Amino acid sequence: MIAERGADFGYMKLTKTQSTHIQLLRGLAIAAVVLIHNTPSGMAQVAIRPFLNFSVGMFLFLSGMLSCKDTWNPKKRIIKVLIPYGVWTLIYVCAYNTQSISSIPVRYIKSLIVADGAAIMYYIFVYCQFTILIPIIDRLAKSKYKYVGFVIAPVEILVMRSLPLIMGYQYNAYLQIVVNVSCLGWFTYFYLGYLLANGHLTVKCRNTTLTICLALSILLQIGESYWYYSLGTANCGSQMKITAVLTGVFCVLLAYRFICSAKAYTCKILLMLGDYAFGIYFSHLLIMFVLRFIPYYEKYVIYPVNAAVAIAISLSLCVLMKKALKKHSWFMGL
User: What is the spatial distance between Cα 271 and Cα 266, in angstroms, rounded to a whole number?
Assistant: First the structure.
């Protein structure tokens, strides 16, 4: 979503086909993100979300693939995301606080610090953490303890997310902020991408085996989502479940095979979505917020049509902003 189309593929240069395949995957992932945010609550979350929960993990996996310690430039990467983060946080804070304009300055500063200007902003903090950690990730990847890296996310999810649900307690507000923006629960995706692209890991399973494992993991995820639902958890379809990470791993492994495929694939719509993925990620919740003010919209424009509308308008907005702002469009994540 963030790394550029011509970036290095770990330790080697991307071919044109690989670059195109990555953009297609970005397009698929951003479409899944918007579908997630339009998915109805309740049992719909249980049934639908397991097929979409690869989305953020896919972006982080691709970012890991396009990272290498030898070309590490954290300042450039972080500035590239923090400026749009600041701009879009201001837009959301203004949009969500029209009834109390005087509170906007304080609210904006708070939102910048805790990444709660919109539900999507946590990703920027997660991405920046991984960017800073690349030298440590590289050392772990090259060590004899490299497989320990795959334990980090499951342990974090179990201890910091599942146990509170099971035990029926909540963290205080400050610790909850840390949990919300922590990269540890997402570690598997970025780390796996880094290992594969930098030659520290190979996957020998056949695509058929990976596909079967993916199907089985989705069934497990549906089961865990239903358990979350039975406990009264509103966000029962959360991506921060152990089974969701398991599903995501098989998705990104199949994606890696797709990227490395010698046969060239393309789809103009997905390719365009991939090119504007970062802008769509920032803008789609605002579009959804505005659409709710249209009379009867929420009543008659139902899922998944509402998601398609949000994608179409967000994409159109990004294209127009790109043309209007030209070389300054990167300030908006374009």
Answer: 7
